[in-house]
Structure formats: C-alpha cells, structure tokens
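WP5 quarterly update. Target: Major facilitator superfamily (MFS) profile domain-containing protein. Source organism: Ciona savignyi. Length: 434 aa.
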Amino acid sequence: KVYRKRWFILTIATIYEILVCIDLASFGQINNVLAELWQVKPWQVDWLNLTTTTVYIVLTIPFCTLFQGSSLRKLIIAFNAVLTVGLMLVMTGLALPSGGFPVAIIGQIATGISVLINFSTIPHVSAVWFPSNEVATAVAVQWVGRGVGSALGAEILPLLVNAKRPSKENRQHLVIFYGATTAISLIVSVLSWWKVDDRPPTPPSFAQQKVQEENDQPGGRWDVLREFKEIVTHKTSVVALMASSTTYALMPFYTILLSSILRKGFPHRNGTDALAGRAVMFSWAIGTVASLASGPLISRTKAYKPIVLASMFGIAFCCVMFMIAFIVKSVVLIYVTVVALGIVDGVIVTSQMELIAEVIYPKSTHRISQLLLMSLAVCQMTYIGIGRVLLSDVGSAVATNIPPCVLVSTMAVVLLLTPIPYNRTEVNSSGERE
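Structure tokens (predicted):
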C-alpha cells in the first residue's frame, strides 16, 4: 500500500539536497575571491570541499556503528539540524574580519557529518516509502535536488562576488547569501521534527516487506562491521561500488576545479569565474532534467547495467572533449562538453544507485551507500589533489582531465566483464506471481 505522505517526506529530503549542494558548489567558482578575503592560498580554499570528503573517509564506519538501528525519522531530523549548524558557522566565518577561515572549516566539518548521516537515506527514503515501480523516480527526484542546488551554487555566487569588487562588499553579499540558506535549513529542520514518520504502516512492496521483517530482528553493533565485511569481500559489490564512485566523483571535480582550470587554459580571457560558474550551472541543470527524465525509463526497463555502462563511456568521452577544447582554445566546445557531461551524469546517478541496490539485496542500502560515500571521497580527493598539482606544477589545463578519463574508462571495462545479478527484481517478480 502507498501513502500520499511519501511525497512530503521526499520533498523534505530534496530540499536538503538543494541546500547542501548549494554549499558544496559555491566555493570552487570563487576560489580566488575567497583566497583574497581570508588571505589564504587557493589550495587552502579547496579544503572547504576536501574537509567534507575527509569526514566521509574517517567517520563513515564509526557513525554507522553509532547510528545502527536509528529510525528514518531520527536520521532526517539529525542531518537537517547538523546542516543548519554547519551553514551558520560558514556564515560566521565569512562575517568575521579576521580568523574566519578556521570557523568556516569547522562549519564544513559539520556539513560533512550532515551529508554522512544523509547519504544512506537517499535510497532508504525511496525504498521505505515508495513501491518498486516508483523507486527509481523517487531517487531521481532527490538527485534533481542535488542538481538544482549545485547549479544555483555555481551560478549565483560568481554573480554576487568577484575579484574586482571591494572585499567589504563581497563579504556582505556572502553573509547575506549564507544567512538565507541557514534560515531555510532551520525551517526544514522544524518541519522534519513535526511531520516526518519513520515508515508507512504497510510496506509499499514485497521486497521492502522482506527487508523490514529482517530489520525487525534484533541486531547488535557488531552486525554493522559484519555487513561491511560481506560487501567489501563480494567481488560484484566491489566492482559496482568502484564503478559508481570513480564516475560520480567527476562532477564534483569539475565543480571545484573548473574555474582554476579555465584561468590556466585561457590566461588572457576576462571573467573566467563567471564562465566557469555558468558552465557548471548548465551541466548541473541539464543533469537535473536528465536524472528526472531517466527515472521512469530506468524503472520501466530495469536495464541498470547497460545504462550505467553507456553513461560511463560517455563520461570518459566528455573528458577527451574537454582536453580537445583546451588544445584548440574553444569556449563553445567547453559549453557543448559540459552539456553532454550533465546529460550522462544525470542518467548515471539514478541508474548506478539502482544497480548497487540490485547487487547487494537483501542487505541494507544503508551500508552500500555509506561505503559508496567513502570510496567517492577517496576518488574525489584523488582527482582534485592530482588536478591541483598538475595545474600548479605542470601548468597544463589539458593534463588535469587525463586521470579521471583513465580511471572511468578502466572501471567501465571491468564492469562490462563482470556478471551482475538482479536480486531485488527477482524477489519482486516472484512475489507478484504468488
């Protein structure tokens, strides 16, 4: 049985995605402005994003143990409340005339913890409240929030601040912007506490009914480590996990570094921050539409592996197109490439979560989501770290695209050669026949 309240809970989760992605997409496009504002180096500003990835790597397993058995309601309240604190600290760090950078870093640590709590609920909200034929669509809607937030963060901040304006004016605009996001996050936190329920009275599908029956059995904190071990020692799970993380890390990579890459690739062009922000905005916006449009198609066809493979090879091709664009110095080709990247990224973020859910069923989607967050953080730090070194030491905008292109292509080939079972689909099919 399905309930209308599922759409309210999905809306709460989606607004959160918008807010957190506004935050994570804001810093890369105005790296030079923030470096001047806080009197730090550009690579130090990168740590406003890398701090969150470090949180994922260090705290994922401890937090999984801590939140073992926590209800969906408690998790939603927790990640919204912690995000509110994080945004408030970033706002404070921007408002302080001196010593604000460490405060903003602490705020990003809080944001990282919030994302860590939230990430496992993306498939969980969909699986608990939505029937099997709507799960991919519900996941896609949450990724729409991710795309909308990233597009807004990438586009609005370069319009509000730039290196030619006085630092006082830039600071004022940033404080107002983060004050608004903090206020919205606070309202969402209150709504979460007031209206969100743990799960519907009746499961929405046969597969979810089986999962709830197993989850209702008593289990201890050691079960978390056992589940992690089972997943990381299962060949198919690891392949699906690595294929997803190497691919999913690419959009954050370009969101954070594209402004710096463009300044290196087009040294005599003015307004590269705005160009980068607009390009990233287009990519996220197109990805949002693609994610929403692909959800029903993925639900209907259940062709998870072919769709993921096509998207991975498409993303590798986009990396090659970026390299060509910097070689021939074509801004038009950059825009064409970011649109293509947005389309394939929007499709893959929906299909890869469904592919992983099929592989690990009936294990909890919490665990694979948390492991995905860890591996994603490692890939993101690798891409950004190598990219920043190539920009600083080699001075090549072209070379920054090579590492992600090689990694994504390699994992696409590995996934192609690996048989993938559709365990969840088989259970639903057998339940419907009965």
